[in-house]
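Lab notebook, page 48
Experiment: co-folding of the full assembly
Goal: obtain a model of how the components sit together before planning crosslinking
Operator: M.T.
Materials (sequences as entered):
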Amino acid sequence: MIQFTVNGRDVSVDVEPEMPLLWVLRDELGLTGTKYGCGIALCGACTVHMDGAAMRTCVLPVSAVAGKKITTIEGLSKDGTHPVQKAWVQLQVPQCGYCQSGQIMAAAALLASNRKPDDEIIETTMSNICRCGTYVRIRDAVKLAATLK
Amino acid sequence: MTTPIANSRRNFLVASTALGGGFMLGVHFPLLAQAADAAAPEVTHWIVIQPDETVIIRIARSELGQGSFTGLAMLVAEELECDWDKVTPEYADVNEHVRRNRIFGAMTTGGSRAIRDSQKYLREAGAAAREMLLTAAAKDWGVPASELTVSKGVITHAATGRSTTYGKVAPLATALEAPKEPRLKDPKDWKLIGTSPPRIDIPDKTTGKQIYAADVSLPGMVHASIVQCPVFGGKLESYDKTKIEGMRGVKSVVAAEDWVAVVADNWWRANEALKALPVEWDVGNNGEVTSESIRAFLRTGIDATDVPVARKEGDTTAAFASADKVIEAEYSAPFLNHATLEPQTATAVFQADRVEVWVGTQNGEASIAAASEASGLPLDKVFLHKMHAGGAFGRRSAFNEFVKQAIKIAQTMPGTPVRLQWSREEDMVQGRYRPTSLVKLRGALDKDGNWIGWHVRQSEPSIAAAVLTQFLKDGIDQIGTRVFIDSPYGVPNYTLEYAMRNTHVLLGPWRAVAHTHNPYFRESFIDELALAAGKDSYQFRRAMLEKKPKDLAVLDAVAKAVGWDTAAPAGVFRGIAVADSYGSYSAAVVELSVKDGTEIEVKRVIVALDPGYIVHPDAVKAQIESGVVWALSSAMLEEITIDKGRVVQTNFSDYPVLTLRHTPKTEAILMPSGGFWGGVGEPPMAAVLPALGNAIFAATGKRVRSLPLKNAGFSYA
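Observation: model returned without errors.
Model output:
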């Protein structure tokens, strides 16, 4: 059994230690807000927080998560009011929306470590793929979120 | 195992059992219509008004992220005069559609059609419902309907001081006959259309609540991963399932003529077992095809002496004979993949007398037809849950192979829900690709630099022959020839020829279809002509668009916005282009600088768009931003190549797409001129590709005639 916490709850899972956290979250724990996009940690659709830092979970073995605190999009806020979520709604960022859980988790982790990121930091940190091309708004929304509570 | 049970007309609750932490998740799905639907309190088939004043507006098209759930509902609400805050869009049920004689009209969502092809009947539905609701109130009160006013769903009779609401009179209105010719508002009286209320689909897309087909979770559900013959048209020869027997969670292996799938209790296990499964293919006759052999085949279309003529004006031969200068160039473009971020996915439950499917689709009718064909059940026994798609761009339009596959697997385990999700690798090598293309262009200039003759020969696989045969006419692809066959330039002597060269590579409509590579070819070549004529590329276009005021207006708008007549800042270079498409008019300017001769920094992209009318300006702006990303991504980075008959690229590692780092400032100029309805989802990107190429030429003197630009040594800085 591998034990860790997800969104503040203790969980223990009896799965292969090499199973990526993404599939433990999605298929074992039923938390489908975290998405599968590429399976090779390139697109970022599977981004969650591990002990507060952004992690791409499609190649992260669940054994590496033992004892860690995991936060998924479902646990980012109770009611969608995390500053990043508010900024995302205010600037109408999502189109198809499939990548946006990962984008929002990446942005929230960035802002937790850097209260006022400049364009350069946003551009190097926010490397998640959005096939719809919402990047212009993502850049603006990260900056807006930095000003929201 | 029980099948999903409807607990209300359009919602049902699914509880998924969870391991470990013991979460219980309640997931609401928009539900298929049950037989009880006929008794629903419809005012019209598009509109249901509930006693609590909720206005349900049915949406026959698909929400792909372009905002159709909001924009289409706005068209109805504008005429209905209901309270926008009470509007709840929901998918028009596809099963109900087939049972009620195709009552919801076209369900396709492609060709930038959602708004422009629906706007009339949706506005009429809103207007008809308004008239019926007012008539019902008037009858109830015994006053003339003409004396009533309505605002935000509240009906008032000023003379007697009475008022009521849509929710209260709806049951009376449903009994009335719908007016045949409801009166529509003059566009100048629109209050909602032309504003940008928050998009209805967005909040759930920021919290993880939005359920895509990939997220469907049903009691007892199993997961499948699939591999199809990597050479299109090949067959499955054999597989050895003993090699994966005993792997944890694996339930079964299901095979068909050209694919094999592994079913397990979670998707990762299914996919791991699939990767371990030895599979042999009979690749058929195409196992030696390469990108080079395809290029040589396209070359035969350029060299052929007798190919169909798609457009002919004046005397091209004479024009070239009298020309002072003849410019000649060949352009080409590769196959491209949609690479929707949600790989193709469908979930199905099969029972002897019914099949239920969850899928993100651009075409509910095509999906239900595919499900019917695969299951052998009549259409009215297929219950289809349309899910918002995780990206579509044409990939989920005509094609439903994933629906058929999910059903074929589900048929081996009746009653058990099967969630089939393609791996990214499978999605990359089993796409429905934007056709590769080779085009030879010749232009004739007279001694004053006037463009007097034009000869264009296209050689390419036909998208129409592959997918949309209704667009095939006398051997000419009416889609693949767009941009040339409908070119607005007033060249007096013009011949367009089309050589169809079909390959075994599967094709599909890739966002903007021919308005991706063809505008690049045409508008780059026009810059070549302008240069040879010693003329400014903007003015050279202007002269040839004299009789096309709408093309001219968008072209002028971007030129003005960038200050074309004044010099660009030091080190900054500009390109301009214009391309009308899908009933709309668009032009673009790109400003960029180049480092070390090859590193492109795009500083600014300006796009002007005239789609006639605009329902939701912010959603249109978002489509322009999106179109710019698609243009910059495909122009520089994207390329599908073929080796040994199969697609070489397997993931975003070798099929890179644009990311935020290289996304420039985008300026949208919305200039709806009224009087027509054009598309929005595809038109904005068309002019951006050539504007980029033209700016690169301005900066480097290098004319890139073969896409993607990276093959010419360029990259984004």
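Interpretation: Residues 213-284+344-421 of chain B form a domain with the Aldehyde Oxidoreductase; domain 4 fold (CATH 3.30.365.10).
Next step: discuss with group before ordering constructs.
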